[in-house]
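Ticket #4471: structure output looks truncated?

Reporter: J.K.
Steps to reproduce: submitted the chain below (260 residues) through the standard prediction queue, then opened the result file.
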Amino acid sequence: MKILITFALESEFAPWRAIHGFRLGTWGEAEAYFADIAGVQVGVVLTGAGPKQAALSAAAVMRGESDSISFCISSGLAGGLKDAYEIGQVLAAQSVFSEAPHADLPSHVLDSSSALVAFAGECGATIVDQFYSAPHVVARAEEKRHLGGVADAVEMESFEILHEAAAFGIPAVPIRAISDLAGEDMPLDMDGVFNDEGRISIPRVLGQVALHPGSVPDLMKLANQSKRAAESLAQFLDRYVPMLVDRARVLETGAAAVGQ
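Returned output as attached by the reporter:
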């Protein structure tokens, strides 16, 4: 049994990485971080921010390695789209919506594994109807509130990751911790701080700050909120992964007994 977990950015992964001392390696054609948790191998892939990078990274690890992956978790941070959600609150979505065209899909909505969602709820996640996987950073509170009519939280990667997982029959679930609230504007043009690989570019951040020096307090606030959310997510994953392993073993034992 192996579990694939994706994060967009190193900062989202950092608190959980520190707990388990993940070691760097490769999985398929992707760079990955590995740790043994609850007696199984967990592999983490940092996709980079955005749907394009998520699709490329998911394909790199799943194609040729799909038979070795038991479950896939699209993890990381998200923006809240409804006032009910708080910083650090962990959400598990029953589906993901994207407006990006996919010729092989009849719908713009992909369903999560119902079992993985239910297990997440048992571990303390708030089960919600839908995430919206956006093509860009949703920066304005006005746009967030508009999207709140169709989704509970916004991120950029889960649709592509679930799309790739579905192609190989891998049960998958999107789980995100809230790092910014529905009523909050982003302090900078966040799309402008990523490089071509979807990583945060410090020179680009500094360039944005130079253009908008008054944004520094709000930028520091967002950084603190993101840190809190990533820590909350790490604590959740430490409960969730062992439960997945335990439930999967119970199912395997039951299936083996039936087959005898």
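Triage note (M.O.): checked the attachment and the full token line is present. The helical segments are 10-20, 51-62, 114-122, 141-147, 158-167, 202-211, 216-259.
Status: closed, working as intended.
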